[in-house]
Amino acid sequence: MVRTMERSASINADQPEQLGTNGCCVKWRNWCGFWLLGLCNNFAYVVMLSAAHDILEKQESKNSTVTASDQLAVGLRAGNRSNSSRYDCSPVSTGAVLLADILPTLFIKISAPFVIHKVPYGFRVLFCVAMAAASFLLVSFSSAVWLSIIGVIFASISSGLGELSFLSLSVFFNRNVLEGWGSGTGAAGVAGSLLYAGLIQAHLSPRTTLLIMLIVPIAMLVSYFVLLVPEPSLPQWSRSETECPPVDSEERQRLMDESEDDLETSAPEDRTMGPVTLQQKLAVIKGLLLPFVIPLGLVYFAEYFINQGLMELLFFHNSSLSHAEQYRWYQTLYQVGVFVSRSSLRLKKFRKTWIFSLLQVVNAVFLIFAVLFQFLPSIWIVFGIILYEGLLGGAAYVNTFHFISKETESRYREFAMATSSVGDSLGIAVAGAAAFPTHSYFCSL
């Protein structure tokens, strides 16, 4: 304690201006920078998928992949349905699109954490921006289905690599930037769909609307290269195997911005011990699995099993809303719930993230019985459950990465943040696979 106070006093004497208005300004610039990075990283993907349907609709091909994109982008239009089922089923489960969207991201998140540390962050950001821009351009100008599919893959690559890179990047900043990142990613789902729909409603063509969205990759560039105020230790353009952020720099930032309790739980380790070995990385993964990765994966499995395996089947014939309108409202309320909970980290933090897993599984089981026996009397009950589902998923995400950042030793923290992001993608992929037999079973009734 005395040593900590002495260091704090020394820092205050050496750099008094850091603790004043400038320090507060830097803190908020970084928070806003990560908010915009989260928004751009997910926003481009949301908008691209929505626009992909309208672009592909003008093509003459009737490939089944296009039909699946129709179902995801416009909320399962009635013209593609089979009315032989009481659930008003679509011919193909929306899990098909979910798998196509998530598998490139999952591959990146599994493999990249072991090698991506060799690539400086500046190059990673440029690559993500290029992939996002290419996805817009390919889907906009494509004249064949396979080109549009490549556009979807590019968007998935940009989103997956961006997520693990920006989560890793957060270890070079005050931990509150995770609040900005979480809130920004939550806002992307709501803002992306609403902005695209608004521009289309204003009678702009889908192609023109999609080209306007090229501003999103530009905003990502501005957020990273202009808005953020990184530590000098950030490996932006070059990085050696032994390069590590200096202990003094990290301690200075931590003393300025964190409480005494945080100092005791996340004191920096010696980061001059050389690169982290493969054995150490595997040990870090083993330590993260049970408390963080598995609960996060389980939350997202249950969440996306609901979204892609059950949500389409929660159809109320006696509602004034059409099936497509009901589905769109489910998706909107889900995104609102995610946005609210991903923005809640400043208000309340939950260390026991397994609680969210348990509650989300209860949600999924309840809705399975609701679909099977159709005992829910009103669509408003489902609206409430879907909103609650989004709240659970968003809360699990932001709290998981907050406590990984807080509790992991500093020399392993960058790797831990990157590799833990595989949990949500793995859960989503398994949910997409499980949606196929679920869809087939219920639609055969």
UniProtKB/TrEMBL annotation:
Membrane-spanning residues: 145-173, 185-204, 210-229, 288-307, 354-373, 379-404
Keywords carried by this UniProt record: Lysosome, Membrane, Transmembrane, Transmembrane helix, Transport
Any one of the GO CC terms: endomembrane system
The keyword Amino-acid biosynthesis is assigned to this record: no
Gene3D superfamilies: MFS general substrate transporter like domains
Gene Ontology annotations of biological process type: axonogenesis; lysosome organization; negative regulation of neuron apoptotic process; regulation of intracellular pH
Record-linked Pfam families: CLN3 (PF02487)
Protein name: Battenin
Source organism: Xiphophorus maculatus (Southern platyfish)
